[in-house]
Amino acid sequence: MAEVSGKSFIPESFPGYSSDMAGQIGVLWELIKAPLIVPLLTICVYICLAMSIMVFLERLYMGVVIVLVKLFWKKPEKRYKWEPMKDDLEMGNGAFPLVLVQIPMFNEKEVYKISIGAACNLSWPADRLVIQVLDDSTDLVIKDMVEKECIRWASKGVNIRYQIRETRGGYKAGALKEGLKRDYVKECDYVVIFDADFRPEPDFLRRSVPFLIHNPDIALVQARWRFVNSNECLLTRMQEMSLDYHFTVEQEVGSATHAFFGFNGTGGIWRIAAINEAGGWKDRTTVEDMDLAVRAGLKGWKFLYLGDLQVKSELPSTFKAFRFQQHRWSCGPANLFRKMMMDIATNKKVTLYKKFYVIYSFFFVRKIIAHMFTFFFYCVVLPLSILVPEVHVPKWGAIYLPCIITALNSVGTPRSFHLLFYWVLFENVMSFHRTKATLIGLLEAKRVNEWVVTEKLGDTLKNKGGKAGAPKKSLSKILGDRIQLHELGFAVFLFVCGCYDFLYGKNCYFVYLFLQVITFTIAGFGYIGTIVPSS
């Protein structure tokens, strides 16, 4: 029997034996490559190509439908009953339904005045409007500031209520649920929700409420988000591109074809009866808005998206805040899909076609496959295939389909078309975080219910005094917030694959890989988005 020394893990009698460690690793690699690595990687390529086709067909379907909607569909005012709100001299303000405005807050020092002021300036009879500020702030100074702002508006005759809770149980869902339990809410017919950074136009209610009044089967009217800080930095431009596609295409298509889409959590007005029938707000996931929308949709309620009804808001401009937001937005839908898939499949109130749309299109492809395909194919499988030339990735899957998918994604923000290539590189970086969050949601692993409120900067950086009271951070804290080891690790991996392709490859993938290395490195060192001064 051949001997194996302490410095060797390959028998000396083995063909191609080498005494040096590098040589032994090379022999071991050749030993396992053909029977193990090549078949496994080939299977991964086929799986990724299948996911690529699924995403492509989904984007193509959405593209075709949105073109038909724009060309042939009637506007919402023509498809649904709608009459403008008019002042009735005989009935007085009784012609206007009682509307509740909920503004959930958590330590919103920079933006609380904006949202409260915008809500108080809504064009609606004062005695038919109740504004509810749901303050879960843990900072007593901020709590006092928000309460004083509410008192200031109340002194002007605005019916505004400042509500606090003993604990933050259920986070935003818990606050909204608690707010609906108040006695003065029982007479309200509708509730509109605005996050702390949202600033509706005065005519918001006059344009949205008539759809609910004259169409008793509509539960939700969702407005489009517009972003006041989209030009602040490259990070906000990237977000604008993704969210504009979501509103311009996904929400519009869902509204026009199925009267169903995911509630965006803010900038929308609900029929309170629909919320109650669906079971109210639940805090079992981090996407309480989507949870409520799916349950209401399964009850047969319809939703309406108004693309021309727009509400200004703020995008997270720091990379840390954006990562936390994307974790919540990726983990929550996956976890909700796990919890509700059987409820959707066995529901008898909606059509089979709508159930297929919700399970396959809304959840499976958009919320799960899209993230995993982007990460595994472009950041793992394609680079590995360069190191294993026996594995072939067809060009239609590596180049042509991705280019078409990217082009279809760009229709939402034509002004940023020149940033499309960098957007792809950035989305590949973020796909790592989204895939990790999606797997956490599907497996209900640690952090599945982690809720971190998205930080809003407001005008902090514009005000010279904005950094005056900021606590000074230690060097270790600054580096901990800035340095991302996972991104730097992927940058090294892709750099090695790029160098190998440059030296031995035939497909010139190194051009893409080196650009992706630069993007991962920039993200790894935290040079994305607004850098908030530490003192």
Question: Which descriptors would you attach to this protein?
Answer:
535 residues; alpha/beta; disordered N terminus; 7 strands; 16 helices
Give a description of the structure.
The structure is a single chain. The protein has 535 residues and is of the alpha/beta class. Helix 3 (112-120) packs parallel to helix 4 (140-154), helix 10 (319-346) crosses helix 11 (352-387) and helix 13 crosses helix 16. The chain has helices at residues 21-72, 76-79, 112-120, 140-154, 171-180, 204-214, 234-257, 272-277, 288-298, 319-346, 352-387, 395-409, 420-443, 475-482, 485-504, 510-524, and strands at residues 99-105, 129-135, 160-164, 190-193, 218-227, 268-271, 302-313. It starts with 20 loop residues before the first helix and ends in an 11-residue tail after the last helix. A 7-stranded mixed beta sheet has the order 3-2-1-4-6-5-7, sandwiched between helices.
CA gyration radius, whole angstroms: 27 Å
Cα separation of the termini: 69 Å
The share of residues in helices is 40-55%
Poorly predicted tracts of residues: 1-10, 464-470
Per DSSP, the total helix count is: 16
Task: Give the averaged pLDDT, no decimals.
Answer: 88
Strand and helix map with partners:
Blueprint: H1 21-72, H2 76-79, E1 99-105, H3 112-120, E2 129-135, H4 140-154, E3 160-164, H5 171-180, E4 190-193, H6 204-214, E5 218-227, H7 234-257, E6 268-271, H8 272-277, H9 288-298, E7 302-313, H10 319-346, H11 352-387, H12 395-409, H13 420-443, H14 475-482, H15 485-504, H16 510-524
Parallel strand pairs: 1-2, 1-4, 2-3, 5-7
Antiparallel strand pairs: 4-6, 5-6
Helix pairs in contact: 1-7, 1-11, 1-12, 3-4, 9-10, 10-11, 10-13, 11-13, 11-15, 13-16, 15-16
